[in-house]
Amino acid sequence: MKPRIGIVGAGRMGANMARHLNDSGYNVAVVYDIHTPVAEELAQEVGAQCAKNLPSVTAAADVVLTVVSDDNAMRDIFKIQGDTLLANAEGVTFINCATLSPEVHQEAAEDAAVVGAKTLEAAMASSIDQARNGTLYLMVGGSEAVFQENKELLEVLSVALRHTGDIGSAAKVKALVNMVMNINTAALAEGLGLADALGLDLGMVREIFSQTGANSRVLETDAEDMQIRDHACYFSSAHAAKDSGIANALANSAEIAVPLSQATEAQYKKMIELGLGELDKSGIAELTFKGRS
After folding, report:
1. So what's the pLDDT on residue 24?
2. Which strands make up the sheet holding 118-124, listed edge to edge?
3. 3-hydroxyisobutyrate dehydrogenase-like NAD-binding domain: from which residue to which, for each copy (predicted)?
4. Is 176 exposed, middle or buried (CB count within 10 Å of its CB: 0-12, 13-18, 19+)?
5. Is 242 a catalytic residue?
6. The pTM is what?
7. What's the confidence (pLDDT) of residue 188?
8. How far apart are CA 189 and CA 91, in angstroms?
9. Phi, psi of 90 (to 5 degrees)
10. Phi and psi (nearest 5°) for 22?
11. In terms of CATH, what superfamily is 4-166?
12. Which CATH code is given to the segment(s) 172-287?
């Protein structure tokens, strides 16, 4: 029998995961978001209960997928007392999908274990369309036994799975993925901005980049958007700043110098300061093209 699913965090990723699971025959039983109208709309769409508090989620679900914004939000939903997912949680499995620090994933798992719940972290190296279509690339941290128990569900959400080790390991790998992606994005924005300032045809430059050592996945996904200034949000610049910060904190703790990543974080923080944080990460080109910022 398929488990009853709870969703905590009905934003771009969480909502599309809920829609895909619903389409795949899972009972998305309950939805919660700190912004109640967002949760109400999704709950109506997938035929779920809209929970008014977190204990209602764990009371109605066997597996709870969480997709929250940052470390503070994660600590809030897993706080020891009050409005918390730890209430009614005995026997529940939490699959925590947000890009957060490894320490916070570990804290949540430890606190869940105290009340008899199980935990996986499932870091997502994909975006909105993949969440909707069940083609996420998932890096999963947690015990092998809990991973196997939930593998069928995870396979429904993903095109590929990789078990990375204990809780916290997936967060470390995801931080590295986004660190490199963000550096590539910032570098591409600078290259295209300079090409434009030199009077070069950007279509030609993009084609040459694609056939040389300048090629990258980011070139495929973001280059045209940078050129035409289409920054509809799939992965926000604010999230890019957060994720680069997580990677840089890990580097600091490991005593490894990461000047490129630090410079990239500074650029994305500048976007936030300029009120551009909700643009897609491709919006970093607004800082590198002459006459835009």
Report:
1. 98
2. 49-50, 27-32, 4-8, 63-66, 93-96, 118-124, 136-141, 158-165
3. 168-287
4. middle
5. no
6. 0.94
7. 98
8. 48
9. -60, 125
10. -60, -45
11. NAD(P)-binding Rossmann-like Domain (3.40.50.720)
12. 1.10.1040.10
Take residue 49 and report the two structure tokens written for it: 């209960």
> Which pair of tokens denotes residue 88?
């009614």
The single residue of 118, 172, 174, 281 carrying the catalytic annotation is 174
**Residues with pLDDT less than 50, the chain:** none
Could you tell me the residue ranges of all domains in the chain?
4-166, 172-287
Identify the pLDDT of residue 293.
Answer: 80
Given a contact cutoff of 8 angstroms between Cβ atoms, the answer to whether 128 and 16 are in contact is: yes
Give every CB contact of residue 242 below 8 A, 6+ residues apart in sequence.
70, 99
CA distances from 189 to 91, 109, 203, 206, 290 (A): 48, 38, 14, 11, 11
Structure confidence by residue, pLDDT tens digits, 13-67:
999 999 999 999 999 999 999 999 999 999 999 999 999 999 999 999 999 999 9
Other CB atoms within a 10 A radius of the CB of residue 144 amount to 10
Sign, Cα dihedral of 146, 151, 152, 156: positive
